[in-house]
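Hi team,

Filling in the usual template for the complex we talked about on Friday. All components are listed, including any nucleic acid strands or ligand strings, so the model treats them as one assembly.

SUBMITTER: L.P.
PURPOSE: interface mapping
COMPONENTS: two
RESIDUES: 471
SEQUENCES:
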Amino acid sequence: MSLNLFNTLSRSLEPFEPLNPTRSSVGMYCCGPTVYDYCHIGNFRTFVFSDLTRRTLEFRGFSVKHVMNITDVEDKILRRLRETDRSLRDFTNEYEKAFLEDLTELNCRMPHHLPRATEYMPQMIDLVAKLLKRGIAYQTPDGSVWFSISNYQGCGCRYGQLVKLNFDEMRPGERVSGDEYDKEAAADFGLWKARVPDDGDVFWPSPWGDGRPGWHLECSAMSTALLGPSFDLHLGGEDLAFPHHEDEIAQSEGALEYPVGQRFVKYWLHAAHLLVEGKKMSKSLGNFFTLRDLRSKGYSGREIRQLLLSAHYRETFNFTLEGLDGARSALSRIDECVAKLVGLAASQRGSPNADVLARFTEAMDDDLNVSRAWSVVFDWVRDQNRLLATGGVTSMKAADAVATWNRLDEVLGLGRRVEDSTPADAVALLDARTAAKQVRDFAHADALRNELKAMGWLVEDTPAGPKLKRA
RNA sequence: GGCGGGGUAGCCAAGUGGUAAGGCACGGCUCUGCAAAAGCUGCAUCGUCGGUUCGAUUCCGACCCUCGCCUCCA
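RESULT (copied from the run log):
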């Protein structure tokens, strides 16, 4: 059994066979954020999906080189920048830093490279030069450079690999402003945007005059710079398939002149969008959540991660606060179980249960079928709880179970619940309650328990004695 | 208008040509001084209508509803 992934290029499930058959290095590129604001929960669905893909590959024994770009020059950034007196770098740094903090909060493994668009100008300019040289790009009088789709097709290349396109049937959206520039065809896209007064001091010199790169260009330049002209996986949200990824293919395959049979990217993976309360997220509907918004409501990164991982990545995900509460309960069930096992295992080291791992692996092999994987996890939790309830767990068995969980968690990335240290006054109240219980003064014991509850601590009487738990 | 996803219990969500995983919520029971945690247990015929079949939620057709993309967008 091998890992099967749904490749947007073929619109079908394909066994994952890396370009480098030794498995020693799998190249994976994921489109990262445009750093002009805090990322929202929808963005993080895609990033958590990328993390899940990477973790699954690593779990399967592949060595992954993970690259995620940081778009730090782009229309939206410039628009925001104009409202401030800050420098581009100063402005984008703030949101880049916040983004990385959020990724960490969600327990995502940090990409090995986080290239910034502004640091790859020479590579982008080189790519444009190659396209101009091949006649696939053209310059307009204002100094902008455009990608010519018809010339690209004239070179025997195919435009429309990820999405079936029928330009005759396409209804140009209102966003195609005809007056924007004087490009030759509506579908042509910008490679280099000539400097305009609104750009302020955000511009770079180029053989075609001062300007800045078009949005798609950075991903072609940075991915091939860091992963080579061809690499294994390219991921992103489904909305990026067209035009962003399609244009990346066009730029790369147009400029790099691959030998027959070689391509820019072997597997394209796209995550479906997330809705909030059944509707597309929007600020006007008030259903727009950043990770920070949810954190301030008291939810932890791992609870949010648990929720984002509850559905298959190709299905539209409906995010609700009710669902988040459900994820919290589900995670707590796992946490309780793992904490008990860890306590019993003490410092013993065990080995994972092969059968559980096999069923879990089989589920993940099925195009990252997390829902199926969860059923394996929760069946395992129930089995462990059953054994725990009957006192049938020796420290050795507990150690094996902990090893099993640790292995599964390499993919899930939930980690362990952090046990807060209990303040001395809470411990004192707990001791007083225990004393009251011993003399069967339950009224007093319950009063003390309520007092603790008001302080945010729950009392749990266990066979090993009373314990305090964060409410 | 073109293209592409979905419709499975109160909610989330797998899945299969032979009467439907798992989680949350809810009810009952056990344990407990009472709780909590945990265990046991209860809770669905799979959008509608046809067709194929011994048998369909799963295949085919039609229809209804819903979401997304069509050059800002994870």
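MY TAKE: Chain A has three domains: 4-271, 276-412, 424-470. Confidence is low (pLDDT under 50) at residues 170-179 of chain A.

Thanks, L.
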